[in-house]
Amino acid sequence: MHGPRILVRYLEVPGEPDKYGNAWQYNSRSDRHSKVGCWGIAFDMLASSSQLREHAESGKVVLGVNHKMTDFSTGRQKRLDLVIARPESAPKATRTSFKQLAVQYGISLTEDETRGLDQLPDIPVANVGAVLVALEAKACMTAHVKSLPRLYDELNSSHLCVHGASSSALAIGYVQVNNSDSFVSSVMNNFSLADRPAITSKHRQPDDTLRVIDKVKEIPRRSKSSEVGFDGVGLSVLDFANDGGPVSIVSAPPAPQQGDSFHYDSMIVRMANEYDATFGKI
Asked: Beta-carbon neighbour count of residue 95 at 10 Å?
């Protein structure tokens, strides 16, 4: 699986400067972490699901970026980071596709990842019809305990909206948690870091990370379309201070271990299998 390594490599390079001239690896006001996290999931699902590859090759699916879904029962709307869907109409030539998003987002791939991507069929970004897979990524990088209610509510509202729009759609939640002992928050540093030292937040690790993981495990999950919850939930534990230094993946506890249903690899395997079983006849 490539997604988590692609994400940490991407986060090591700061994004565009904010209005104070500060360039952040992670900025809570930006969606760069979520869009690249979801791109990585789509990459791994495409490599893992033979049915999704066949649908891509035959033009049966398109991508929607920041797609607005509407809960049919309540009218509630929510924008999803990335969706895989049936096309709204007959496929047309588009200027943007799954592979082109990697260039558009500035995603750096290794030689192995590039070869893997080249071997996969492409998927156009186009007008969305019926959603098959909806991806939502959320991050908890600092103020872990304070962020828990918001994190839970945003994730919970996501799967409710997806399945309110279509009970057969697969809803995937991907959570990125920071395990660093300290963090330089873009919210707390609303001034130019060229003028004065950064304000640094301190964390109680691994307790803060464990609190987030335990809360994520409370999110409803479902094993059939008549139930309520996400069809798959994955967790990646990262370690970085958001000060321009290295970003790494935490593989030892408190991160989910291989075989754990919340491990990223387990999420991909489950979702690829669910896609093959659910959408074989579209």
From this structure: 7
CA distance 64 to 66: 7
- Nearest-CA neighbor of 55 among 162, 109, 133? 133
Task: Scan for tokens 């709307």, then name that residue.
Answer: 77
- Per-residue model confidence as pLDDT tens digits over 170-209: 999 999 999 999 999 999 999 999 999 999 999 999 999 9
Task: Give CB contacts under 8 A, 24+ apart, made by 251-254.
Answer: 253/206, 254/179, 254/206, 254/209, 254/210, 254/213
- Residues belonging to the chain: 282
How many Å apart are CA 270 and CA 233, to the nearest integer?
10
Q: How many CA atoms lie within 13 A of 211 on its CB side?
A: 17
What's the pLDDT score for residue 74? 86
Query: What is the pTM (predicted TM-score) of this model?
Result: 0.95
Q: How far, in Å, CA of 225 to CA of 169, rounded? A: 8
